[in-house]
Amino acid sequence: MATLTICATPPLPTFNSLYQSFQSLLTGPFAVPSFPALPTLPSPIFSGFHSPNIEAVELAAELQCSQILNLILALFKPVVDFLGIAIEDILPTIPFLGVNLIQLLAGDAAAFIKQLEGIAVSTILGIAGLPAQFYKNYVIPALSALQTFQLLVRSYFAALINTLFGLVKQVAHIIGVGALSLPTIPSFGEFFETFALSIINGILLTSGNGISVLTSDIGVIMNLVAIALAALGLPFDSTLPDPLFPSLNMPEFTLFEQLKNLYTNFSMSPLQLLLDFIVNTLHLSVAIPQICISVALPKVGLPPLVLPKFTLPKLPTIPKLPNLNVLKLSLKLPGVGIPSISVPNVSIPNLGNISGASISLPSVTVPSISLPSISGLNLSLKTEFKLPTLKFPGISIPKLSYPHLPFPSFKLPSFKIPTLSIPKIPTIPAIPKPKLGLHLTVQANINITL
Fold first, then answer.
1. Same structural domain for residues 375 and 411?
2. Contact of 389 with 443, CB cutoff 8 Å
3. Which residue, 392, 390, 395, is CA-closest to 347?
4. Model's pTM, two decimal places?
5. Which residue range(s) make up the domain with 409?
6. Strand partners, 305
7. What is the three-state SS of 308-362?
8. Does the pLDDT value for residue 109 go beyond 90?
9. What is the total count of domains within the chain?
């Protein structure tokens, strides 16, 4: 199983940067990847169904959220240390859950969602300024439960940022530097009511039973909301993917997700200002975190290919070729004539002990010879080859009592064989096994003893 590791770019990644990292999940085969749990995202994300499109977008959004929450905690630590305050005593808590930032990051998203089951959704959504039923055309309990939890967390952003800003102003006053100017950050509910709801009402038909959205309306709404947010004087990245879900047509759900992502991008702007001020003006050290996750991608394979059984016909047995004793193989080399040597059977009378003369042949240097392939024979020649020791069969020499007769020694002059090019030799037909065999072994120097 392959693993895809995705890291949020510190200090504050945009949603687009993480969304692009998940394109392989959005456009790939519809296999179910294995997502890790995050503080605001359970694993599995939905207990009743799987949708890689939705799950990949949720994971990108909540990885961004996790990076933001961890950075906020990292910004709190040097500030409270300077002021001598216990961080647990200063952190606000999340409504309905009663947990602070440290407990949220160490907790279980699935347990938090279950904790909200006993509370009316309309009560929770009322805090966020959303209609009791956000979607008019469909109801998906698993999605509603997850988004209710995420709405509470997004609303918690504003409480954390505003609390941190108040502490930073205290440190700036103690050090004696000018305080950072920062507008009050709206919660997600205030953001929706102040910047989104009026725009949505002007374009869409809304009621207590939810809203009905056309896909073509989403881009118009998002552009107008971004313009309204920009009036606060905080620059932020308002660019969002379009379409958000390449293979999913759920306009109301898409609108909600885009509003959530836009608000998250907007929240990063005051955090960047606080980070720069704490480090560069207050000269406090901040350990900037980086959150990474590993997504297990299942192998997408084709069904096994079954080939029909087949049997190759039996090949006929190739008969074994008989061993050939070549009586005589004479190759005429251009420019050099070597006569054949024929030694008849010799019967020698009693001549006494005979000591054969020593015949020394000179070294013969033979250039490389390339022979063509001869069918039926395995032949090979090297640059140096040895002329054979000649054995003469049929000579019977008995013990003799005659006086010793010496034979004089003689030498043949040295000679060189020029470079040869031997034409292709045709296939040699089968040669019948002769009665008399002549075996040749080629060596560089030859001593013949008679």
1. yes
2. yes
3. 395
4. 0.64
5. 325-421+434-450
6. none
7. CCCCCCCCCCCCCCCCCCCCCCCCCECCECCCCCCCCCCECCCCCCEECCCEECC
8. yes
9. 2
The 10 Å Cβ neighbour count of residue 8 is 25
Tell whether omega for the bond before 186 is within 30 degrees of 0, i.e. cis: no
User: What does the alpha-carbon distance between residue 17 and residue 240 come to, in Å, rounded to a whole number?
Assistant: 10
Residue 65 domain-assigned (yes or no): yes
* Residue 272 shares a structural domain with residue 142: yes
Inter-residue contact 361 to 446 (CB < 8 Å): yes
Contact 252, 210 (CB under 8 A): yes
Question: Is 318 domain-assigned?
Answer: no
Q: How far apart are CA 90 and CA 77, in angstroms?
A: 11
**Rounded Cα gap, residues 315 and 34, in angstroms:** 54
340 and 285 belong to one structural domain: no
Predicted confidence (pLDDT) at residue 416 exceeds the cutoff of 90? no
Separation of alpha carbons 401 and 352, rounded Å: 4
The DSSP bridge pattern shows strands 292-297 and 405-406 to be unpaired
Nearest to 278 by CA among 135, 431, 429, 72: 72
Check whether residue 140 and residue 230 sit in a common domain.
yes
Domain assignment present for residue 429? The answer is no
User: How many whole angstroms separate alpha carbon 342 and alpha carbon 338?
Assistant: 12
Beta strand 359-360 with 410-411: parallel, antiparallel or unpaired?
A: parallel
Instruction: Give 381's DSSP letter.
Output: -
Shared-domain flag, residues 23 and 108: yes
Q: Tens digits of per-residue pLDDT, 297-326?
A: 766 554 554 555 656 567 667 666 566 454
Half-sphere exposure (Cβ direction) of 75: Cα atoms closer than 13 Å: 30
Regarding whether 228 and 94 lie in a shared domain, the answer is yes
